[in-house]
């Protein structure tokens, strides 16, 4: 414990000359004693015990291996339930640094991309006017974009289906937007809804579209939501500049996260863990949609939305984005239809949480430090900047432990699986360990996306 200097300088004693001499001798012998004590202590224990735990950690982190771990984690896509090798590797690293490590497996209901199609049809002749490739570009400077190293564009838990219908623009697809559409006299029933990303969680757009009778949904990224960092404002697109690449597609979960009655985690086991021999499963549709949904780039939605120009109601001012060549008419245009086909593989599949524990003097007080390990593709920022930091935290805590420090509280590192699909790993663990979490976990530090290109979030660790 550091001594407050102010209280020392304010300390004064009136004393006689003799007393002062005695005090000086005492002072020197005390100092000598202290010096010998500290020296003996120094050589009898490991040297870093003389340092504060913070200093041990900071010294250890002077050699920064985060880049190395990031390379390891991002070498291949780490889609939920696919990269068992990274779960095993994470466990080995935790063990290497002196934590007792384990893998906690859950058997979850999950979807994987398989096939998809999107065609613009002439309503009269059924002739295909445009077929969206539904693919992102391979960028020569970015091997993570090569097709043999990526995952098809899709949304987790988007329902399978093959629908053909007229389509309308529904702005962000919020509850209010659908109310507004009613006021404008637009009937969404039986149509495909095209919503731009933003404002609310994407799965809720699907829910509200479905509640309003839509039979399919397309979600696209409108440059109007890129905070002015757009080619129209002179910014070059990735990889030449910071603007969104017009062919890029936002993957994500279509679960109804945050929706009334919806629960995160495995949608077939709400409130209890997907673990054990005889898991009871219920209908997942309280938390997932029944209509097919595809995500799409703004380059590929352009020719589709341009067909609505001048058709149907005009968008309220706030609904107007920045897609060139589209006047944001709501539609529909009876002359054209969309055929939207989504076919994903749904099955029960294992996911793997990895834990590493440094036991403390108190086992009844647990500090959780965690991050997820699954990504939509390679996940350099989200989540693996955090995965790399988690391994660095393990390394530093390992050094502290090896130096002879005792942790007051138990520190548990957690590398969750399935976060992107709907917080699967953490939710299932929360359901499994609910009693322990409620009674023992006193703090949780989440390292997800520790670093982004635009935002560097400094995380402060309080370890004792
Ligand atoms: C267009 O396709 C629909 C649905 O498959 C079909 O009912 C209709 O007869 C087709 N129209 C023409 C002109 O082929
Ligand atoms: C992946 O694709 C890229 C670009 O098309 C190619 O250069 C590379 O050799 C491929 N890698 C593998 C492992 O096939
Ligand atoms: C989807 O439906 C369309 C028209 O109803 C049909 O032409 C097409 O073959 C179907 N696609 C698949 C993959 O079944
Ligand atoms: C702490 C706890 O309750 N763990 C349980 C997690 O689920 C498995 C399988 O049902 C049980 O065996 C554990 O006891």
From TrEMBL:
<keyword id="KW-0862">Zinc</keyword>
<protein>
    <recommendedName>
        <fullName>Peptide hydrolase</fullName>
        <ecNumber>3.4.-.-</ecNumber>
    </recommendedName>
</protein>
<dbReference type="InterPro" id="IPR046450">
    <property type="entry name" value="PA_dom_sf"/>
</dbReference>
<feature type="transmembrane region" description="Helical">
    <location>
        <begin position="25"/>
        <end position="43"/>
    </location>
</feature>
<keyword id="KW-0479">Metal-binding</keyword>
<keyword id="KW-0472">Membrane</keyword>
<dbReference type="GO" id="GO:0046872">
    <property type="term" value="F:metal ion binding"/>
</dbReference>
<keyword id="KW-1133">Transmembrane helix</keyword>
<feature type="domain" description="Peptidase M28">
    <location>
        <begin position="353"/>
        <end position="449"/>
    </location>
</feature>
<comment type="similarity">
    <text>Belongs to the peptidase M28 family. M28B subfamily.</text>
</comment>
<feature type="region of interest" description="Disordered">
    <location>
        <begin position="239"/>
        <end position="290"/>
    </location>
</feature>
<keyword id="KW-0378">Hydrolase</keyword>
<feature type="domain" description="PA">
    <location>
        <begin position="163"/>
        <end position="241"/>
    </location>
</feature>
<dbReference type="GO" id="GO:0006508">
    <property type="term" value="P:proteolysis"/>
</dbReference>
<keyword id="KW-0645">Protease</keyword>
<keyword id="KW-0812">Transmembrane</keyword>
<dbReference type="Pfam" id="PF04389">
    <property type="entry name" value="Peptidase_M28"/>
</dbReference>
<dbReference type="InterPro" id="IPR007484">
    <property type="entry name" value="Peptidase_M28"/>
</dbReference>
<dbReference type="InterPro" id="IPR039373">
    <property type="entry name" value="Peptidase_M28B"/>
</dbReference>
<dbReference type="GO" id="GO:0004180">
    <property type="term" value="F:carboxypeptidase activity"/>
</dbReference>
<dbReference type="Pfam" id="PF02225">
    <property type="entry name" value="PA"/>
</dbReference>
<dbReference type="InterPro" id="IPR003137">
    <property type="entry name" value="PA_domain"/>
</dbReference>
């Amino acid at each position: 414990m550091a001594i407050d200097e102010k209280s020392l300088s304010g300390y004064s004693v009136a004393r006689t000359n003799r007393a002062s001499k005695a005090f000086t001798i005492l002072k020197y012998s005390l100092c000598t004693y202290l010096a010998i004590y500290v020296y003996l202590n120094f050589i009898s224990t490991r040297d870093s015990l003389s340092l504060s735990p913070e200093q041990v950690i900071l010294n250890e982190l002077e050699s920064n291996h985060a880049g190395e771990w990031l390379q390891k984690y991002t070498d291949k896509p780490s889609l939920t339930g696919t990269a068992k090798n990274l779960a095993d590797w994470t466990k080995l690293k935790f063990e290497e640094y002196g934590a007792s490590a384990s893998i906690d497996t859950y058997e979850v209901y999950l979807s994987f991309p398989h096939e998809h199609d999107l065609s613009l049809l002439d309503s009269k002749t059924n002739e295909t006017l445009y077929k969206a490739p539904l693919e992102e570009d391979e960028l020569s400077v970015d091997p993570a974009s090569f097709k043999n190293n990526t995952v098809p564009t899709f949304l987790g838990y988007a329902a399978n289906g093959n629908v053909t219908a007229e389509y309308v623009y529904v702005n962000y697809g919020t509850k209010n937007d659908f109310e507004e559409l009613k006021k404008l006299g637009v009937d969404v029933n039986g149509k495909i809804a095209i919503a731009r990303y933003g404002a609310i969680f994407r799965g809720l757009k699907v829910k509200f579209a479905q509640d309003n009778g839509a039979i399919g949904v397309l979600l696209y990224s409108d440059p109007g939501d890129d905070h002015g960092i757009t080619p129209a404002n002179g910014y070059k697109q990735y990889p030449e500049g910071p603007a969104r690449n017009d062919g890029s597609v936002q993957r994500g979960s279509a679960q109804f996260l945050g929706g009334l009655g919806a629960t995160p985690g495995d949608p077939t086991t709400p409130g209890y863990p997907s673990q054990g021999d005889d898991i009871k499963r219920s209908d997942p549709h309280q938390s997932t949609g029944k209509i097919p949904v595809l995500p799409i780039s703004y380059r590929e939605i352009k020719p589709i939305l341009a067909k609505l120009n001048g058709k149907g109601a005009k968008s309220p001012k706030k609904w107007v984005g920045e897609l060139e060549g589209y006047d944001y008419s709501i539609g529909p245009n009876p002359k054209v239809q969309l055929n939207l086909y989504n076919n994903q593989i749904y099955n029960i599949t294992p996911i793997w949480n990895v834990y590493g524990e440094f036991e403390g003097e108190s086992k009844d007080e647990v500090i959780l430090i965690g991050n997820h390990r699954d990504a939509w593709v390679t996940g350099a920022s989200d989540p693996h900047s955090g995965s790399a930091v988690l391994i660095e935290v393990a390394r530093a805590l390992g050094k502290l432990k090896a130096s002879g420090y005792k942790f007051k509280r138990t520190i548990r590192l957690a590398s969750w699986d399935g976060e992107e699909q709907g917080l699967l790993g953490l939710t299932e663990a929360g359901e499994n360990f609910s009693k322990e979490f409620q009674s023992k976990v006193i703090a949780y530090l989440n390292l997800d996306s520790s670093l982004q290109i635009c935002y560097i979030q400094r995380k402060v660790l309080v370890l004792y």
